[in-house]
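Minutes, project check-in
Item: structure for the 281-residue chain
Input as provided by the requester:
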Amino acid sequence: MAAPLMLDNVWLQKSRYEEAEAHYYAVQAGTATPGQAGGQSQGGRTIRNEITQAREQIANALKQPLILNNNRTLKGNQGGAGGNSPQVQKRLDSLEKENQDLRKTTKELQELVRKLESRVSALEKGGKGDAPAASKPAPATPAADDDNEDEDDDFELFGDDDDDEEAEKAREAKKKAALEAYAAKKSKKPELIAKSSIILDVKPWDDETDMKELERLVRTIEKDGLVWGTAKLVDLAYGIKKLVIVCVIEDAKISVDDLQEDITGFEDYVQSVDIAAFNKI
């Protein structure tokens, strides 16, 4: 019973089935005809034959020259290209159209270059023609009438020396007058006086010093270029106060050091004098 069961599981017609399947796909691909027997080997021969025939047709079409007529048909290709496929014919038509377009473009470019060359040559000729005209000397002015000739005859080659001397003297006098006027104007301008504003700190010996008397003594100092201003008392420490007084001085007339010495000259009242602020006015 084992032998019949084993035979039932064996596929004895596998090769025929594979051959039929290959033939089916060949028919679908267009390389074999339906109902044709012979299998895959015959389909392969059909494909090779068609490829060889297409190559021969293309080679013949490329070897023969293309002659275009007014009706845009191909001549001299009847023998080898009579059996061309539609794809080859379409390709040939497109090549013919491209060839015509290229020829047309080439003609247009040639015509444009021709025009540019003519324009350049014309400009060069015009430039060469204008140069001599520009370099021509200006025509001489016509001769003067008889009256002008008479005046030229009366003209002296050397001018009068007396006239030149008088003109020179007039220029010098004018220059001198201008300088004098400038000097007079400058002398009338008021001269700026440099001044300074000073704040002095006058410190007494102790808290028993009479600060009013101290201020009176400081103001007794009178000099040309010195003006005393406001004053006030400011606390220092332990009841001692200092005198803060303002004065304006002319820098060219008053020395700050001399002013400090004059104030410290009141030895009974003044211990020291310091400059709290110094500003130019």
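Outcome recorded: Residues 66-83, 130-135 have pLDDT under 50 and may be disordered.
No further action items on this chain.
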